[in-house]
Amino acid sequence: MRIGELAAQAGTTRDTVRFYEKLGLVVGRRLTNGYRDYPPEAVTWLRHVRTAQRLGFSLAEIAQHGEQLRDATDDGPALSALLEEKIRIIDERMAALAALRADLSARIGAACPLQAAGQVG
After folding, report:
1. Orientation angle between helical segments 14-23 and 3-10, nearest 10 degrees
2. What is the domain count for the chain?
3. Can you give the residue range of the structural domain that contains 95?
4. Residues near 46 by Cβ (< 8 Å), separated by ≥ 6?
5. If we measure between CA atoms, which residue out of 45, 32, 31 comes closest to residue 1?
6. CA torsion 68→71→73→76, rounded to 10°?
7. What is the C-alpha separation between 54 and 11, in angstroms, rounded?
8. Do both 49 and 107 map to the same domain?
9. What per-residue confidence (pLDDT) applies to 22?
10. Cβ partners under 8 Å of residue 56, min gap 6
């Protein structure tokens, strides 16, 4: 299928498909007339890529784990491990943000809010 058809079926743009191709996320072959031709399974794969992005995976992570994501079934252990790792990273970020929030809250109303905690002026 050509790039326009792929983009329409996957719910994306031609530019996005071209960008994904530059990153190696999708591969199309060049026809003799110069058009790109993509296999039908590229539609499903691009939908998976978009879903993975919505779940917080970067394009670099998707490219790195592409084979695991392509081969995973709905309950695939490899995919579950990736999701668990993403949850762990989110939990770490949430803890760091909670600590930052507490630090900021403690500084509200201080004579010099930018002075390090416990530092004598």
Report:
1. 100
2. 2
3. 73-114
4. 6, 10, 12, 17, 20, 26
5. 31
6. -40
7. 14
8. no
9. 93
10. 86, 90
CA distances in angstroms from 50 to 58, 87, 115, listed in the order given: 10, 18, 44
Helix extents (H) in the chain:
3-10, 14-23, 41-54, 59-64, 66-71, 77-107
Instruction: Give the position of tokens 């993403």.
Output: 86
Q: What confidence tens digit (pLDDT) does each residue in 42-61 have? A: 999 999 999 999 999 999 99
Cα distance between residue 5 and residue 16, in whole Å: 13
Could you tell me the two tokens for 58? 């970067």
Summarised one tens digit per residue, pLDDT across range 63-79 is: 988 877 776 655 577 78
Burial class (CB in 10 A: 0-12, 13-18, 19+), 97: exposed
Q: Residue 118 — very low, low, confident or very high, per pLDDT cuts 50/70/90?
A: low
In a domain, 13, yes or no: yes
Cα–Cα distance measured from residue 109 to residue 121, given in angstroms and rounded to the nearest whole number: 16
Residue with tokens 């403690």: 106
